[in-house]
Design brief:
The protein is α+β, with helices and mostly antiparallel strands. 16% of the residues lie in helices and 36% in strands. Strand 36 and strand 37 form a beta hairpin.
Length: 562
């Protein structure tokens, strides 16, 4: 009945109040037909979505029994319009991607392989392919993203975190065990959600104690990284998901933030206050390690986020739209610090960008096999201010040292800052306190929150580039005029004399960068709180305190949604 009305040309003549009844009878396939038959369809669905969100908010404050529309019915209709809108709003323009999501839910997980996964209101996972200009085989769809799979929550075990790798048909889930105390790792396939055929144990104990804060959860080849715990009890574990074996455990150290990430070549980077720790995992699971010294700041870091990203190559790879170039990759470390000699509540971001190739070269050149005890006890190893490796036992007598020579834990090699840093890293001072960075290719995006005298800003860095345009694979894209630009060439100095304990630190660098900024327009009923970057777009998260929405924005787009 409904489609017959539309097919007779009546779609654009129907009053809006009749659409509520019509939409309740349509399947998703019929909704797509309605979209083609009626120019008003998307606008009507959006209006209905807004109306039911308003009703649901009003009912939450009123007596449900006294309302004309039952609360559960209103919630059901809101969820239906939410699903309908997701079907219709897959384009790369300024329109919502997902609406009515609680603030505590994680932002969409974006992989450089051109994939994205979004967790919706009900706990379902939607896996989609981002249209990538680097793909040689898949044309960019006119309607934006192409949905590859939708996994219902009842098909999955309960989870608090997940990671996936389409090239291995791999979905790894971290969730509570049947005893509801300690978490388990589930190794599944993306396609069937059944145990992965290469995993000897599809479920095994994560070994991190009761579920708490999950700081890092990554998958790299056959390795799984979990970094979790509270400020006083951090633990880092690396598992081989094919064998289910725990191949590395680190605990008892002081850390704050998202500090651990794989950077390639089976190498793990762990960011600490005074050094970068590199761990290489050989095929036989022997761990090699070395430390790279960092300059000592006057003020300790309040929070640290670490991301790694590689420029793109146009060589195809199975399961991926493109491959990354590890020789040109960039690690971006964002450190929130108090500004010296200023009010205690004044904070800013210090960005440290490092060439991935340099880190891997140092790890191969200097790392040595070490026992886990070299890091499990924080008293064993530290770096003094002169930059020489020492241990807490240095004050003991020589005779004691000689007598304990056979039982001493091997020292971890350390490389001084002046031997590796100036030519491969760059510090960037951002006046505002920016939180989680997002990287893609050679770019990094930060969202500087709004304050009294200025709106929120998107800060976009290009490391290793001196040109005026963004080069990706074989195509070049310029940003719109709303962006301001500053290019900082290589071999320039940054005045960090007020930040470091030692004013003799060399902060010249061979790593150029470009920074672009644009103000984020004020959005009604909410503010932008986070930004994520992919190849040809930016995802912006808006929150009103209780709900959040995600918007996509073209890199060269001039507007955000109203």
């Amino acid at each position: 009945m409904s489609l017959r009305l539309l097919n007779h040309g009546l779609a654009d003549r129907l009053p809006t109040e009749l659409w509520d009844q019509i939409l309740g009878e349509l399947s998703y396939t019929e909704m797509i037909k309605c979209k083609m038959l009626s120019r008003r369809f998307q606008r009507i669905v959006r209006a209905m979505l807004k109306m039911y969100k308003g009703r649901l908010g009003a009912l939450a404050l009123a007596n449900v029994e006294d309302s004309d529309v039952p609360f559960n019915e209103c919630k059901r209709m809101l969820h239906r319009y939410h699903q309908t809108w997701e079907v219709l709003s897959g384009d790369m323009g300024p329109s919502p991607i997902s609406t009515h999501l609680p603030n505590h839910q994680s932002p969409p997980l974006i992989l450089e392989s051109g994939w994205i996964v979004i967790e919706d209101l009900t706990g379902d996972l939607t896996f989609a392919k981002i249209p990538t200009i680097s793909s040689l085989h898949d044309p960019i769809p006119h309607d934006g993203w192409s949905v590859k799979a939708n996994i219902r929550c009842h098909q999955l075990p309960r989870f608090v975190a997940y990671q996936f790798d389409p090239s291995q048909d791999l979905l790894v889930i971290l969730g509570p065990s049947s005893l509801q105390r300690y978490p388990d790792i589930h190794v599944l396939t993306m396609i069937t959600q059944r145990p992965h055929p290469l995993a000897q144990h599809s479920i095994f104990d994560a070994g991190i104690g009761p579920l708490g804060e999950i700081n890092s959860f990554e998958v790299y080849q056959d390795l799984i990284l979990i970094f979790a715990g509270t400020d006083e009890d951090r633990i880092l574990r690396v598992w081989n998901w094919k064998t289910g074996e725990d191949i590395f455990t680190l605990e008892g150290f002081d850390a704050l933030g998202d500090l651990a990430t794989f950077i390639g070549d089976r190498t793990l980077l762990l960011v600490q206050e005074y050094e970068l720790q590199l761990f290489r995992f050989a095929e036989d699971d022997v761990v090699h390690a070395c430390d790279l010294e960092l300059p000592r700041f006057i003020e300790p870091a309040l929070q640290i986020w670490t991301t790694v990203s590689h420029p793109l190559s146009n060589v195809p790879e199975p399961g991926r739209a493109f491959v990354t170039d590890p020789d040109k990759g960039i690690v971006v470390i964002n450190m929130i610090r108090s500004v010296p000699d200023v009010a205690p509540d004044k904070r800013c971001s210090i960005i440290l960008a490092i060439r991935v190739a340099a880190l891997l070269a140092e790890a191969r050149r200097h790392s040595a096999p070490v026992a886990e005890e070299a890091y499990s006890d924080p008293r064993i190893y530290e770096v003094d201010r002169s930059g020489y490796a020492c241990s807490d036992s240095d004050s003991d007598s020589d005779s004691d040292s000689d007598s304990n020579a056979d039982t001493t834990t091997p020292e971890v090699p350390i490389v001084m800052w002046n031997d590796w840093g100036p030519q491969n890293a760059r510090f960037v001072h951002v006046d505002e306190e920016c939180e989680t960075p997002s990287t893609f290719g050679s770019r990094c995006v930060l969202l500087s929150p709004s304050c009294r005298d200025r709106p929120a800003e998107i800060v976009l860095f290009d490391f290793g580039l001196d040109t005026e345009e963004i080069s990706i694979s074989t195509r070049t894209h310029a940003l719109s005029s709303e962006w301001t630009v500053e290019v900082v060439s290589a071999h320039t100095s940054l005045d960090m004399s007020g930040w470091f304990e030692d004013t003799t630190w060399v902060v010249d660098t061979g790593l150029p960068y470009r920074v672009r900024r644009r103000a984020v327009p004020e959005l009604p009923n909410g503010a932008c709180i986070e930004a994520a970057l992919w190849e040809n777009g930016i995802m912006v998260k808006k929150s009103d305190g209780g709900q959040c929405e995600y918007f996509s924005m073209s890199m060269h787009g001039s507007t955000l949604p109203p």
